[in-house]
Design a protein that fits this description.
alpha/beta; 7 helices; single chain; binds S-adenosylmethionine; 2 domains; about 240 residues; globular; N-terminal domain of TfIIb
């Protein structure tokens, strides 16, 4: 399922970083290509990595409708964010769309940061975009149910329902999702079930993780447009970092 990226401020923020730092861009956890496509359309070379062959297949399918030069600028490879070693370095290494939260242990988080670091040029920057844990949700405990509708770029309508199960001690959030396609007559199709587990990262924790991985925080963006944060828990947690301690 491909969510529509039109007007997404996270995408605009990534585009502005790519314009500033230039390519080639390494994108780890390329998923459906939502964040990679705007960059290749802008003229940047992008190397997109994902653990999932089916995700990479979705991006390849999506690319077939793009002009030949745009297609040529995107290279896709299977890889694990924790062990990735392409033997080359990039001025911009990106991990958008909460992919960092798929590291379920501190060991994996550090392995991922070190993998990102080894792909950075000496003056390159990395950017990790994750949500800031919602402490109100934590306080409310498990079991909250959210429901929303969305349309894919191909024009298919879906209704998604998700149940959030929170484990405060392990900082894990299990999402149980059900997607149903909405037919032209409003009749719902069969339910497709998916489940995923993420580990929350708190802002102060991220600062320590960066330090241990020998990365220096350059900017902690809490508002895509202004870059400012009102407090540590305001807005997304967009970490821009460089090599260094
Ligand atoms: C929920 S998706 C991100 C979706 C993104 N927001 C989007 O719309 O394009 C998470 C992605 O991270 C990938 N992923 C999870 N663990 C990974 C790992 N260890 N290494 C590389 N990719 C991984 C998954 O295969 C999936 O494509």
């Amino acid at each position: 399922m491909l969510a529509d990226g039109a007007g997404n401020p996270a995408i605009e923020h990534l585009r502005s970083l790519a314009a500033k730092y230039g390519g080639p861009v390494l994108q780890i956890g390329v998923a459906t290509g939502l964040f990679a496509l705007p960059l290749v359309r802008d003229g940047h070379e992008v190397v997109g990595i994902d653990l999932s062959e089916s995700m990479l297949g979705a991006v390849r399918g999506r690319m077939t409708t793009e002009p030949a030069d745009v297609q040529q600028r995107l290279t896709l490879e299977t890889g694990d964010m924790r062990t990735l070693d392409l033997g080359r370095r990039f001025p911009l290494v990106t991990m958008p769309g909460n992919v960092f939260l798929y590291n379920l242990t501190q060991r994996d988080q550090l392995a991922t940061l070190r993998a990102m670091r080894r792909h950075l040029t000496d003056d390159g920057v990395l950017v990790i975009d994750i949500f800031t844990p919602d402490l109100r949700l934590l306080a409310a405990g498990s079991g909250s149910v959210q429901s929303h509708r969305f349309r894919t770029p191909e024009g298919a309508d879906y209704v998604a329902e998700q149940t959030v199960l929170v484990e405060p001690l392990t900082q894990r959030e299990k999402l149980r999702m059900t997607h149903r396609r909405i037919g032209p007559d409003g009749v719902l199709g069969p339910a497709l079930f998916t489940e995923m587990t993420m580990r929350y990262v708190y802002p102060a924790e991220m600062l320590l993780l960066l330090k241990v991985a020998k990365l220096r925080l350059y900017e902690l963006v809490g508002n895509y447009a202004t870059g400012q944060r009102k407090s540590a828990y305001d807005g997304p947690q967009v970490v821009v970092a460089t090599r260094g301690e």
